């Protein structure tokens, strides 16, 4: 089945430009150097699945003219990946049923605590998002497509990556356990965290992600969750032909 991926955000937790910074990338006039917080939207057969709802979701949704979301998958409970949950409200009000959200146990607990006014059964907040939160428990079947959760390590913390059809999305990781590596070989599209050039304790660096691409051999690889250390055009010139920095608004086609 044909599907599309839209990169809603390709930046790190502080976004690019970063507040108060006048570096080359933060001052760049290249629109591809403007990076909102990391998220993608997958569209197929008239359905749309969102991975992470960032603090920039409202801006991202307006930019991409998003009118419908059918499910949301969460990678982990850090602020740059969940704080846009409240901005799902206008999309949930148009639905006949509550919007399903999916997260692992740890992430679900963080979301329930952070958004108590949404999930507390005694809440009287009249315009809260109309959502239901489900615990991830193995592969999901969503609207005729399979989404396989994969465990990766974000420092010492286990978080969730996803494979769906011939594509996979791995954000905020520093290492990939062997069982997850085994199901990531030979993809059409592979998204990988590539925070910066220098090593980082909880994120993959540019060179580390290039090493993963060499091992997994996807047809196309795109780097995400990038800080202001990486200028889009300059970095792309130095990458292999099948590897590129993603950018906000990038659209790709693949088989799901």
Could you walk me through the main structural features you see in this protein, from its secondary elements to its overall organization?
The protein is an alpha/beta fold and 256 residues long. The chain has one domain (2-255): Ribonuclease Z/Hydroxyacylglutathione hydrolase-like (Metallo-beta-lactamase, Chain A), CATH 3.60.15. 20% of the residues lie in helices and 29% in strands. The protein has eight helices and 14 strands. The strands form two sheets. It has a seven-stranded mixed beta sheet. Helix 1 (57-64) links the parallel strand 3 and strand 4 (71-73). The mean pLDDT is 97.
Give me the count of strands: 14
Average of per-residue pLDDT values: 97
DSSP strand (E) fraction?
25-35%
Low-pLDDT windows of residues: none
Rg over C-alpha atoms, rounded to the nearest angstrom? 17 Å
What's the SSE blueprint?
Blueprint: E1 2-9, E2 39-44, E3 47-51, H1 57-64, E4 71-73, H2 79-82, H3 89-92, E5 99-103, H4 105-114, H5 116-119, E6 131-135, E7 140-142, E8 145-154, E9 157-164, E10 167-170, H6 178-182, E11 189-193, H7 206-216, E12 220-224, H8 232-237, E13 243-245, E14 251-255
Parallel strand pairs: 3-4, 4-5, 5-6, 10-11, 11-12, 12-13
Antiparallel strand pairs: 1-2, 1-14, 2-3, 7-8, 8-9, 9-10
